[in-house]
Amino acid sequence: MVDSADVRPADEGRVATGAPSPGRNGVPGTRTTGDEDPPRRIRDRRAFWLIAPTMVILAVVILYPVFRALYLSFQADRGINEATGRFEPGGFAGFDHYLMWLTGNCGAGAGSCPPGTLGADFWPAVGVTLFFAVVTVSIEVVLGLWMATVMSRNFFGRSMLRASVLIPWAIPTAVTAKLWFFIFAENGIANKVLGTSIAWTTDPWASRFAVILADVWKTTPFMALLILAGLQMIPRDVYEAARVDGATAWQRFTRITLPLVKPALMVAVLFRTLDVLRMYDLPAILSGTSGSTPTTTVSILVVADMRSGNFNSASALSTLVFLMIFAVAFVMVKFLGANAVRTQDEQRKGVRK
């Protein structure tokens, strides 16, 4: 008789001594962690050097203009030195440019900026920009969600529909703006169809409606595409289980579709909101680039100030635009879940709650 205590697993000695245990067909198993560290460090080092050129290019292309604009925003405009009669740098101006935009005070004894000047148009431009952001994004969310829901179903010609829907989004913004400019011209298609003579490009509310309509027509497919990607990640068996439980179509939409598509929906809302906050092409082509138009956005003010030769104050304004966009992005990412990339298990937990 052999004592059972004397019988040990064949690999026990190997494990105790740190030797690799035999794998399938006698092939040695995985090496210890100490043997893997040098190759892993080498791979990490190679990866770093592979992405280093790209990071350098991004630093030059992105970081340098940002810091250059920030530096210029604290500098006074160049002026003529009365003693030498030459243009010379204005020196350090502090927060004068920022105060000019935020308070509407043109300084140098001028007091409040007179109506029609860029300094007086800042807050109206901020209001117009936020108005465009709220209205266009809200409409695009509703239409994009509806379009994505339709395109997620199985029907004949679905691929053709998906491709055709993306055509407005693929057209360059300048071309889109020019197309709608012809439609909303005084003798354009819109007035001929409606039998009216509305000044679509000069009337305050008509011009804003024209910009909103053009933007919704162009960018709703982009919103629908992002939402569609989120819808296709939802398992079909979730809907089948809801049908078996007797859930109505509205209950399936509110209890399953909306909670599970929320991460993709919030990312789409974030992208579109940031895009609208820096809108320039559509209102500039439809209504003009002067600061006194009813569709003037803050980006139009930046370009108009640069065309006037005020690069330092334009840099201050662009910095304010950046801070506004950063604040909106921070709120959406931190509190509204725009960065939520949840697994299907987490999504199911959210639905059950």
Automatic annotation (TrEMBL):
Subcellular location: Cell membrane; Membrane
InterPro entries reported for this sequence: MetI-like, MetI-like_sf, Sugar_ABC_transporter
Keyword Membrane in record: yes
UniProt-annotated stretches for the region Disordered: 1-39
A Pfam entry, by short name: BPD_transp_1
Biological process annotations from GO: transmembrane transport
Keywords, in A-Z order: Membrane, Sugar transport, Transmembrane, Transmembrane helix, Transport
Keyword RNA-binding found: no
Stretches with biased composition (Basic and acidic residues): 1-14
Listed transmembrane segments: 47-67, 122-148, 160-185, 205-231, 283-304, 316-336
Highest rank taxon of the organism: Bacteria
Protein name: Multiple sugar transport system permease protein
